[in-house]
Amino acid sequence: MRKKLFFLFLVFCFVGCKKTETVKQTSGNDNSGDYYVESSIGDASYLNPILASDSASADINNLVFNGLVKYDKNINIMGDLAESWTVSSDGKIIIFNLRKNVRWHDGKQFTAEDVEFTYQKLIDPKVKTPYSSDFELVKKIEIINPYKIKITYKGPFSPGLISWGMGIIPKHIFQTGDFNTHPANRKPIGTGPYKFVEWKTDEKIVLEANPDYFEGPPKISKYIYRIIPDQSVQFLELRNETIDSMGLTPDQYNAYKNFFKNYNKFRYPSFGYAYLGYNLLNPFFKEKEIRQAIAHSINKKEIIDGILLGLGVPATGPYPPTSWAYNPEVSDYEYNPEKAKKIFGKFGWIDSDNDGWLDKNGKKFEFTIITNQGNKSRAVAAELIQAHLKKVGIKVNIRILEWSTFIHQYIDKKKFDAVILGWSLSRDPDQYPLWHSSQKKEGQYNFVSYENKEVDKLLEEGRRIFPEKQRQEIYRKIHKILAVDQPYTFLYVADALPVIHKRFIGPEVAPLGIGWNFREWYVPEANQKYTLQQ
Amino acid sequence: MISYIFRRLLLTIPVLLGITVITFLVMHLSPGKPTDILTDMNQKITVEAKQRLVAIYGLDKPVYVQYGMWIKRLAKLDFGKSFKDDRPVIKKIAERLPATLLLNFLSIIFIFAIAIPIGVISSVKKDTVFDKITTVTVFLGFSVPTFWLAILLMIFFGLHLGWLPISGFRSINFDELTFFGKFTDITKHLILPVFVSAFTGLAGLSRYTKSAMLEVLHQDYIRTARAKGLTESTVIFKHALRNALIPVVTIIGLTIPDLIGGSFIFETIFAWPGMGRLGYEAIMSRDYPVIMAVGTIVAILTLFGNLIADITYAYIDPRIRYR
Q: Which residues share a beta bridge with A141?
């Protein structure tokens, strides 16, 4: 403990691992070339990282823009536009040292002024950004010199560091004209490995390799993002080899082998989980032992086999196995209806009138699970849980509701017994909005009304301190407590199932996922499919 | 006639206003706000950030105020900006119009070119094998689910034979092609969607033509024409068909909004960058300005189509006169 406290007060200084890349410029035969064709269900909205909130825009923005920091393949923070940074001992001040060799795609030099400008836009009330929350905790921002910027927070806020992974936008482009409707939102100019070429609405977005990229140019010369709004048609295009990659559904993944003879299949746990959340204000769910007994009555394996065809793992707590906050010591509740019945009995829930359902003081153990329309796996999960709980004598009703009614009339107003939903998580393990007892108001995310003083303290501490080792300890504790308390019964972590055409060399699964080293992927010259014509 | 047209045009104004009021109301009554898509269940977005977005979009004002603002803009022919990407709605529509017009125009031409002859022949040769086969075929087309037929054809012609592209409007190397190459590229992409849309749309028109023809063929003047000793083809095409086509004109008028309305299922399956997807996606994401614009334009075209049908009626049928 002393040691830990001592660490708390240390000066934390990270130096982003800066690789001095010496890109071999062997003219011609360096295997660069070819296109990478990807597909998406929906079109992008803004090619501006500050305004966009949809995944299609994010896919493009991640290639066109850089943040100050980013995650390496093991989800550790490393420098991107920042070469290194220091955090003051009280955690309130972060100083970023910026790279000096970065140019915008139009040739202008990147400097600290762009960072300041990006921040100003993020907190500008006229800007339609959904990301203001993290940046409103910044007290002030000062440019020390063109390549050094000092950020002062109102209080220590460690998730703030990765919030600077937000794409930095060019001041010289955006300083004139209205920000929300700026033409550059459709013709982005960034610093990233790929440059924008064209965007044909609802058809495709085309990017090309940036030859002046500060880490060296990417090998694949063009990136084409096709919009194909139907998943089964996407799959046909994949079988036809007209797209190079796609995220599969479990049944597509299990399709005939020869569909994939030209593709490499990958499989890794996605960064999110599905859960059964209990309204803890409901008297049925007041005791954690009851919730644990319900966890014992739910056969997660059957749910995973039924919904994901086995392509997933049971979730034991609020972190997926690929997160560094995941606590491997937490074991799952084994499926054991007998044990569950005993626990219910201990709390007075027995089938006294022999009608097959548990009751206590003349009241039947009966509740309703609600979930949203349009998500088949959640509906099926509800049905399976209904069947599992029937075996122990609990009557479950299911109600499926249209999304916005579901959220605004039921979840936000806490008018539910139990709910099946999923979270897709950010890589940073801070889950303050989900579990802190101050976050129970209407529209906030602790809608199950969870309250645990220790978790509150740990969540606050996790936001205050920076070193990952110590944060890991904190979040692993949270993982363990939540597994015991069972405010949710964590159901499963589905696998991400991407396939990538075999001609691409370099894709590698890491905790971060699969695209983390996209810049280094290449196609040996003999296998190249598309050639650049001028 | 002129005064009739003028009166009809005047009448469309209150009808159109009524349509926009109802559309606006229904749109606001349906659950959910445009900002929900970005803000619901997103841990990174606080309640304050949500409210800020609601205020920026003007959604905190009463519905009648919002409608007033919309009408005021419309009076200046301004459909406003899309909530999704802040671009002028009219520009978004203009971008998608060519693809939709091309597809629908072609398929309507094919429908007319095929359905009318089918209707004529099967009425003349009523109860023959030809009549029975075409009846079954057009109804097959009418009842088969479009997406299913489309996917089967994609698998056969796209995947197995490799003759046609599976989806999309043009190839990814389109810009590098010559003019002739571009032409064949788009043609190839058009074959499947036009075929599916024409095949599934034959039933209505061919049935209308058939029943109209059958009715006409029993008229006394047809018997007279035959008694005069005219050839069968003159009787059918000159005397019968011209009279039978009068009700068909109504259908032509009603297809005008279809020309630009687009079909969501079609455009989604074929990854066609058209109006149907724009409208559908706008509805799903509660993009109010786009919903209103598409709704208004389709309403205008429907009213306009009806007017055109009425006017052509008077033109081709001397028995009808408007005052």
A: A151
3-state secondary structure of A79: strand
Which residues from chain B sit within 8 angstroms of residue A240, using beta carbons?
158-159, 162, 166
| Amino acid occupying residue A224 | I
A17-76: per-residue pLDDT in tens?
A: 333 333 334 445 578 889 999 999 889 999 999 999 888 999 999 999 999 999 999 999
- Of residues B32, B170, B277, nearest to A202 (C-beta): B277
pTM for the model stands at 0.85
Give me the interface pTM, i.e. the ipTM: 0.85
Instruction: Report the chain B residue with the minimal C-alpha distance to residue A225.
Output: B172
Contact B86 A180 (CB under 8 A): yes
Tell if the CB–CB gap between B50 and A203 is shorter than 8 Å: no
Residue B1 confidence (pLDDT): 73
CB B202 within 8 A of CB B114: yes
* Cβ–Cβ < 8 Å for A175, A190: no
Question: B323 pLDDT band (50/70/90 cuts)?
Answer: low
What pLDDT, in 10s, does the model give residues A462-494? 999 998 899 999 999 999 999 999 999 999 999
- Closest-CA residue to A440 (of A448, A430, A431, A432): A448
Residues of A in contact with B270 (CB under 8 A): 233
Q: Distance between CA atoms of B197 and B192, rounded to whole angstroms?
A: 8
Quote the CA–CA distance of A212 and A223 in Å, as a whole number: 17
Pairing of strands A366-372, A395-401: parallel
Max CA pair span of chain B? 86
